[in-house]
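Consider the following assembly input.
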Amino acid sequence: MLVGPKYLKARHTLQLSSMRRFVPRHFPRGEEFSCRDGEYCFIRVFFAKKAFMSSVLELLLEGEALSTKQMARILNMTHEEVERELEELKKKKVLLGWRPVLHPEANDGLNVRAVIEVKITPEREGGFNRLAERISGFEEVESCYLMSGGYDLLAFVRGSNLHDVAAFVSERLATMGGVLSTSTHFLLRSYKEQGFMLAERNADPVKPKVTP
Amino acid sequence: MSELSQRFVARHVADLPRSGIRDFFELVSSMDEVISLSIGEPDFVTPWNIREASIYALERGRTSYTSNRGMPRLCRAISEYVEDEFGIGYHPESEVLVTVGVSEALDIALRALINPGDKVLYHEPCYVSYHPSVVLAHGEAVPVGTSSGDAFALDPEKLEAAWTPGCKILVLNFPTNPTGGVLDHGKLERIARLAVEKDLVVITDEIYSELTFQGEHVTIASLPGMRERTIFLHGFSKAFAMTGFRIGYACGPPPLIESMMRVHQYSMLCAPILSQEAGIEALLHGKDSLGRMKEQYRRRRDFIVPRLNELGLSCHMPHGTFYCFPSVAETGLSEKEFAVELLNEERVAVVPGTAFGVHGEGFVRCCFATSYEQLIEATDRIERFLEKRKDLSK
Ligand SMILES: Cc1ncc(COP(=O)(O)O)c(C=O)c1O
């Protein structure tokens, strides 16, 4: 099923090739063009939502924690077939990996989180990529994105205390060549964590166990 | 019967049989750690955007009555939705009536159409309220059995055979609660021709139509000659997981809708305004959520039905709804014994088929709108239950 067109907007011509990289190769491209509009260029791609969806992936995305054995039973596949499909998804880099989603206040030793807006100078070759990858390399950085708008990169970082995070910003990040400025915001409270609502729901079961 | 009820309660009410669902409900409620496959509603909560629309309306102080017919915006949204999804155009001002669920719509349709003694044809096993609703409207119920051999479709020949002079109404519900049966185009056309020939008015309960997994759902209202004799009932409960909002609607030719409106305006006045606001949001922006939920039901169906067959409970693949209707005949138990023993021994609740009419004999209804983990556990427990019985009989 084609759901598009979607326009990706890139700030520099050099971005064009790297933006293309974000679109998996097996996406059918209905139409693709670039045009210079001042310093912007546009890539038009048709995203195929279902094209890369395997049944295993669809099941995973429902969000219920299931073992591969259980998945095999639900999908009427053999255990090996499920494993093979998961391997395939990993190989294609559709599935990057697994990790538990923790309550942000569960004490895992890294309880201080911040988002940092970073302005950087793009480079002649590679645009923002080299610096973005360097910044992403630090263990403190959980995720890092190139952004449109008032700054270039948005980095999510974690540390065990305020001091840790401050030290990371002032000593490592801000001092890096090409980093023009940083602006750090600490996360105070989480209401939703990767799809999980955190507020306690009233556990009183109102739903009757038998209904017509 | 107590002396008081004998003195005061109307005969036709006192004579209504107790609902099989209610008996079973009481039994299940007295137990802990039951996995329930006996729920007739989605396990999803209503999508947030729909709930939020209701909250917004509440915040803005929209707490009044609405027009008897329903809010004009909702009637327009219904008219457009039915046109897009079912291919029939109903005028939002004269052919749409917003009701308190399909339950009310069915009740007032029957009350508006039935003269005492008029006969009402419907297929069975069916939704629990059809028979009592007919009786309460002083009609005479004429159930027509459907069977697993026909995948619980209504056989036009059986319908014709069941017809007798005095039959005025035909109630249809495809996909069907509790069987998941659907009607193919050929049968639908023959039933439509029969309705014209016998001059029947058709009430079609379309509440599960969005949850059709195979083939395209066609409503009888869209067939030639049917629009003017059909009352199309639909609601939000199942497709949009909105059972608690209590909202639905009826569409039909103006004189029939007007007749229902007469009953509705004095008995219900209007559907709750907060639910109407939610209904608008559901129709305008609910399609994505609906699609996602439907996919998840389909995957659950594809798991549970082969699994039940594998266990020896023969079960046809339902083409719609979130119910499957396996036969328990192989076990040598009646449907009631099966349900009660399974509950006592393994704490899994399924509904005996006879709760949906005598033609449900030998079957149980399993609702698969629940988590995979529960479905896996429930079917494993059923397996253990059946194994134990086999061992005993050796
Ligand atoms: C076939 C059928 N019709 C009507 C209803 C009631 O629907 P509503 O919630 O819109 O009153 C149900 C609910 O289980 C049903 O299964």
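Confidence is low (pLDDT under 50) at residues 1-52 of chain A. Ask yourself how this observation constrains the way the partners meet.
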